[in-house]
Model the fold of this input.
Amino acid sequence: MKTRIPLFLVLVFGIVGIIPYYSQHPIIQGSENFIRNDVIRIVAAFALILGLGSLLRVHFDKIRRSRPNWQYSYVLIIGFVVSSIIGLLGGRVGEGFLPTQIGGFEFHMQVLFENIIVPLGSTMFALLAFFMASAAYRAFRARSLDATLLLVTAFIIMIGLLPLGDRISPHLPSFVQWIMDIPNVASKRGIGFGIALGSLATSLKIILGIERSWLGGSK
Amino acid sequence: MVALILVGLFALAPPTNVQALDTPGDGGEAITVEWQLSPDDNIIDGYEIHRSEDGVDFAMVGFVGRSRTRYEDNTDDGQEYYYKVAALADTVRTFSESSPPALSSPQWFNNSALILLIAMLIFGGIILYYIYVARKGKELYIRKIAGLEAVDDAVGRATEMGKPVLYVIGIGTMSNIASIASINILAEVAKKAGQYETPLIVPHSDPIVYTVAREVVKESYTSIGRPDLFDPDKVFFVTQSQFAYAAAIDGIMVRERPAANFLIGWFRAESLIIAETGAITGAIQIAGTDSVSQLPFFVTACDYTIIGEELYAASAYLSREPMLLSAIKGEDVGKMVIFAALGIASLIGLLTRFPILTIFQ
Done:
């Protein structure tokens, strides 16, 4: 019974999930929207509570056991409590009953998002440039035939996309375009075919209850 | 101006044979109007579509440019509509005859998805056939996948070094097929980690994926007879913010120094940030995703990369269950069918280039 109910639900919702692709009827599309927009949101809300519980438990445990860098857990917990109070009582843009403006200083959720989350996200994203440089350095060490091929192709592409490429040879930009349009797209489509068939096979295995790893491998 | 002079000299010919029909395969509330071009199509500005509910009073509902023969009108289901199409040149317009009345209604089957349905049935049938073959006990040969062969080595290395294994599912939700495939692989990795008593750290960015993964890891430890090894603090939710999640993973990699990193699931721009940090810490890294744009980053920064469909095959490959392996065989046959179809289509395309072989044109 422990596995039969989940398997039955997967079978039913798997089939229900397929039907809207083949029917535009309002009844079918309405049911699809209800499941996607309403049911999943309710499930996600409960899952979010579990997720936040997990996050807080991990950090309280870290403080209690004085694990390495336990001080940072206070930052998370204080940040969580403060932003929760502002978000729940102050509203997204200050429409709640908690005052979120002192003189010209505002601190509602949108302000927190724009002034803390966005800059921190941008900072992480900016690191990508440096990681790309170090990854490229490692990839471009021509240690094998594959790496050499990658190095040569990348070099041709980079030169061909620069104005310098056209000066070297007027045929170079069109050759670069050919590499991008033909071998590059061919390999992408090859992977795409495999992904499409793999998705179909995985979906079938799960819907029919053949693949049960997601249940922890229960028979 | 030239058009107007021509129109002034000669009467503008209207479009003919106006037909209105319920748009096929739609969800209702649409009627498709079709007509034959006006003989003066080359000098007109376009076509006005006029609609009436009683066949007497018509009002304009749309306009399309010249050389167009089709218009889709938004309607109310169950109401009869009549249509006229007018050829318009500057301020002169000539109306066609009225179409017969048409009603819109929702359809149960979307005709445009028929090819997709047939393809799904064919490939689904092939996969089911091989599952049936496997059920009869026939041995199936599956080629070696280097990235999956290395899973044992990676977990073994972490065990020898006395360090944890880090498993990152990415930022996909439970509706991403890559996340589902990753959960399946996680079950196998958790069993191996449990057998070696190696700690397994699984941070998450999606609360639903976290909830599922937590149960999967718990069940995996239980299935090998070691439920005591499950530590709920090792499978945890971090944040839904993409780069905050990447920062958290980087922090875990630097602080905990896992000896093996599994980066398997759905990734976007954070893929290289995570994979490069892992490479810098010296961990053995096995990555896998069906996000084609992130594959080059993983190929560059990781020791092994599970590419596209291999990700879906991984669970079967690791568990070695014949029923699951049979689906991989079905996929391979499906690919052969696609390649055969592409080959035949390419050949026909090539033959049309030869003037003598006009049969294919």
Q: What stands out?
A: Helices of chain A lie at 4-18, 26-64, 71-90, 109-139, 145-161, 163-168, 172-181, 183-207. Residues 143-181 of chain A form one domain. Chain A has a mean pLDDT of 88. The CA atoms of residues 142 and 148 of chain A lie 5 Å apart.
